[in-house]
Each structure stands twice: as C-alpha cells, then as structure tokens.
Amino acid sequence: MLFNPRTYDPAQFDEPTRRLLRATVDWFESRGKKALIDTYIDRAWYADFLEFAAREGLFAEFLTPSAADPDKRWDTARIAELNEILGFYGLGYWYTWQVTILGLGPVWQSENEAVRARAAKLLAEGHVMAFGLSERTHGADIYSTDMILTPDGEGGFTATGSKYYIGNGNVAGLVSVFGRRSDVEGPEGYVFFAADSRHEAYHLVKNVVNAQMYVSEFRLEDYPVRAEDVLHTGQAAFDAALNTVNVGKFNLCTASVGICEHAMYEAVTHAHNRVLYGRKVTDFPHVRRELTDAYARLVAMKLFSARAVDYFRTASPEDRRYLLFNPMTKMKVTTEGEKVIDLMWDVIAAKGFEADTYFDKAAKDIRGLPKLEGTVHVNLALILKFMGNYLFAPADYAPVPTRLDAADDAFLFRQGPARGLGAIRFHDWRAPYDRHAQLANVARFREQADGFCELLLKHAPSKEQQADLDFLLEIGQLFALIVYGQLVLEQAELTGLDADVLDQIFDALVRDFSAHATELHGKASTTEEQAAWALANVRRPVADAERAAKVWARVEALSGSYEMQP
Ligand SMILES: Cc1cc2nc3c(=O)[nH]c(=O)nc-3n(C[C@H](O)[C@H](O)[C@H](O)COP(=O)(O)OP(=O)(O)OC[C@H]3O[C@@H](n4cnc5c(N)ncnc54)[C@H](O)[C@@H]3O)c2cc1C
C-alpha cells in the first residue's frame, strides 16, 4: 500500500513518465540520507536538486500543458505521484515545485501568448517560478492588496509594493504578481502580471522562514510592467488567483501522504526493534493500537487523494464536483497527516527528536500543510457551501472511472468564474455506503451520517448559529467526514482494497464522528435539542480482534522494509 523506493515501479504511467519518476527517486537515494539531513539542518538551498530537475527537464515535462507544447501535458495523476515522492524526501523539495505550479497558474490561464511562450521557454531552460499573491499585513484578505500599478501612459504600468511569504522569490525566472491599479476602484482594478526576479527594480529583502526553502519578502520599486507582461485584468485577475489556488492546493494532500510514509517506515522499524523489559515495544497493546490507527489513517489519506484525482481530471463546466473534493484534500487529508505523525511520535518518543532521522523533520513539516493555501478554517467554510446539495439533492452523473490516462487536464486552466458554488450538484453519496453495508463499521458510520442529515432537517442551525463560524466549523467537520468516507469507499472498490483495512479505516471514522459530535455538544451556542442529538449520535466502533490482528500484521511487515540509502 505504501510507496517504497526499493520496489517502486510506477507501471501505471507511460514510459517517459516512469523514467522521470524513477530518476527522481534514484537521485534522492544516491545522494543519500546524510546529505538530505545535513542540508535540512544547515538550511542549505537545494541547488543540486534544481540542477537535477533542470537536467532531466522534470518540471518542464510535468508542468507544460499541451496548449503551450503539444508534446507535453498537464496530467494531474502524475503530478500527484511526484508530490508524494517529493514529500517523501522532504517538504522543501516539494515546496519549490509547488510554488512553481502556483506561479504558472495565472500564466497558463492567460490569453497572453507572449508570456505563455516565455514561461514554456523558462521551464525548458530549468527555471523555477513563483506566485506573488500574499502580503504581510493582509493574510487571506487578498482584496486588500497594496501592490499598486500606476499607468505609464503607453499601455503599461509601473508597479510598487511588497509581497511576503513568496516561495522561490530568490531565483524565480517568472513571478506572477497580483496587484491593483491606482486609477481604478474596486474589482475592475485588479491586475496579474509577470515579473522577473532578476530585474533591477525587483528587490529581494529576505527569507522570512527558518528553513531550507526560500520564502521571500520582495519589493518592487517602480517596476516596469509592459503591456506584454499583463496576464489578467479586473475580475478575471481575481478569478485567476482563486483558480490557481484551486490547482495548487490539490498538491498538499499527496505531499502529506509522502511525508507520513517515510516517517512510518522509520517509526515502525524503530518500535519493532526496540526491546524494553525483555519484550518488543510493539508487543504493548496501546502501541499496536496507535500504529494500526496511524496506518489505517494513512491508507485512507491515499485512497481519498487518489479518488479526488479522478474528479479533478474529469471536471468540466458541467461537472464542478472537484470544487468540494479539492478543499477536502486540503483540510482533511493534511490534518489526518498531522494525526498520523502524532500517533507515531507518541510511540517512538525520544527517537522522534533525533537529528539524523527523517522523522523529526516530518514532525515539524507536517504541521505546515494544513496552514498553507488557505487555513483549515477557510477551507472548511468553503466546504460548507456544498453541504445542502451534497446531502439532499443528488443528481445523475456518468460514473467517473480511474483516470491514469495520459490526458492533458486543459479544463484546469479555463475553470471560469469562481462563483456559483452553492449550485453545484453531486452524485448520490449513499450509493457507495450501501454497497459496503456488510462491513460493520461502514454500517455504523452510515448510521451517524444519516443522523447528521436528521440534525440538519430537524434542528437546523438558526440564523444566529449560521453567523457563528465557530459553531458552523464543527458542523463542517461532521459533514467533511461523510464526504471523506464516500471517496475512500469509491477508491477502495476501484482498487479492491482488503476489507479488513477498510473496516479499520471506518473504525477511525466512527470515533472521529463521535469526537466531533461531542465537541458540538460542548459549544456555547448549541441548543438543547442539538446537544441531545450530539450525544445520541456518539457511537462505538465495532471491535473485532481478528480484523485488528490482520491489519497489525500489515503494519509489522513495514519494519525493516525501507531505510534510505546512507
Ligand atoms: C511557508 C509559507 C509559504 C508560503 N508561500 C506562499 C507563496 O508562495 N505565495 C503566496 O502568495 N503566499 C504564500 N504563503 C502565504 C499563505 O498562503 C498565507 O499564510 C495564507 O494565505 C493565510 O494567511 P495568514 O497565514 O497570514 O493567515 P490570516 O489570513 O491572517 O488568518 C488569520 C486567521 O483568520 C482565519 N481566517 C481568515 N480568513 C478567513 C475566512 N474567510 N474564513 C474563516 N477563517 C478565516 C484563518 O483561518 C486564521 O486562523 C506562504 C505562507 C507560508 C507560511
């Protein structure tokens, strides 16, 4: 189930893809663990990795859509695969690639042929890109940009202002920068333009983080923005920002999976070989329980992410279901990643602090993913917009198959206006639950999911509660579990997942639902009826010692099955 560099053969992809993925794994393995660890600790910029990627044409091959080069394609399935590999070796390697994706978003969505050609050429030459949206004082409030463009009277502008938290801002060949015109009020004044970090009016201020990756503050001083540098104007610039984040934030789930996988090999191997009081640490029942839980949660992260790829790739103006599954990958899979690391760290304790492990880096870096590309709150608030239609108004759609085909996901760069989310319809969430009703914990979770519908119908949040984001976010957490379970089941079916592992996953989901129901019970604004509902819907998972033992055997088998080349 887990990515293992020792046995890795991405046979599901075409030959050039396979070769590049394998070459990436081989590069990390032959460079070795000592270099990986030392450069992390020294916060050394990973020029050698970028040289490798440039030499192999890795980013150019994976990140140039067919519209820019008919011999290449933007293929979310293989992009997801590379996320996992890069996360497996470290967040920093993933991040430089991730912000290149973000930087390319406004370019590939633009009708400006000259910049598109420039970006394709820069990629082919091995450059990375950057995405200049965030500013120090404005956080998620991107409406309030202080990057000001003043018309120069010749169809262009001069841009002045600062950007903060901009990855690759130290080297990017192209930086997509978001700002607003000095002479136009409101949304019509937004502009997205392409800047060059090597230009003399581009001033790199500093790296704002204490890490190997470079997350820059930069300042533009009268930076000349020529007409041919303008990517988008007005509302389209704002939509391009949101649609870019839609494409980009999808990458966080598989990065999180990769981080957890590497950490799991280390954790299980350590615990299984450590002997205390004359017995293996993994003989303790609580240790087995924690590692089994971590494993089941990690498998669920993989299943959900993989299935979300299919909806992403099948998206069209008529099928925008990906707009729910995408923030789900972002807030749910990445927070599950935190739980997986927490569970394992509980077991390996002091070992998880040691400098020469991957684990201590994973323990820090896994925390970042839920916070980037919109926080958990922002994504939960987004997910809530879909709840009514998802639960109560299913629609007919043709079945979505597994999408590993070598297609170009062109729709991602013509997603159109970012509005109208509340009108999006979904296929019937109950169908995969019904098909797995024979599994005890799926059936039990289904009772909770039906109970949730009852809560919304009989004790719907009042007007005041709908304005109370603290209350609503808890509702969002309960809802998110139902969506999570649905795609996990769909993917389990498509891949023939072992029934014991699937039941173990739903053992965790039942407990999670109960935990969130208890949280809801404790909220100040929860009514008596809602509180009574919450307690009535706390359920115990169905225990099964034989099932747990079978899943544990899978976890145990991970011990010693992978250690990075020294
Ligand atoms: C390591 C790192 C790398 C980054 N790389 C880039 C990059 O390359 N390019 C780039 O443009 N940006 C980048 N960012 C910025 C990142 O996207 C911001 O952190 C993010 O937009 C949130 O801003 P903030 O962290 O300042 O939180 P704030 O926006 O200040 O939020 C504060 C709190 O308010 C809550 N909140 C805000 N809005 C809402 C809402 N609408 N609904 C509910 N709750 C809300 C948040 O959840 C949070 O708890 C990076 C950040 C980091 C730390």
TrEMBL record:
Q: Which residues form a coiled coil?
A: none
**Which UniProt keywords are present, listed alphabetically?**
FAD, Flavoprotein
GO MF terms here are: acyl-CoA dehydrogenase activity
Q: Tell me yes or no: is Cytoplasm among this UniProt entry's keywords.
A: no
Could you tell me which InterPro entries the record lists for this protein?
Acyl-CoA_Oxase/DH_mid-dom_sf (IPR046373), AcylCo_DH-like_C (IPR036250), AcylCo_DH/oxidase_C (IPR009075), AcylCoA_DH/oxidase_NM_dom_sf (IPR009100)
Q: Name one GO cellular component term.
A: plasma membrane
Top-level division of the source organism's lineage: Bacteria
Tagged with keyword Flavoprotein: yes
SUPFAM superfamilies, alphabetized: Acyl-CoA dehydrogenase C-terminal domain-like, Acyl-CoA dehydrogenase NM domain-like
Task: Using the record's annotation, list all stretches that form the Acyl-CoA dehydrogenase/oxidase C-terminal domain.
Answer: 238-386
Q: Which Pfam families match?
A: Acyl-CoA_dh_1 (PF00441)
Name the PANTHER family for this protein: ACYL-COA DEHYDROGENASE, ACYL-COA DEHYDROGENASE FADE4-RELATED
The UniProt similarity line reads: Belongs to the acyl-CoA dehydrogenase family.
Protein name per the record: Acyl-CoA dehydrogenase
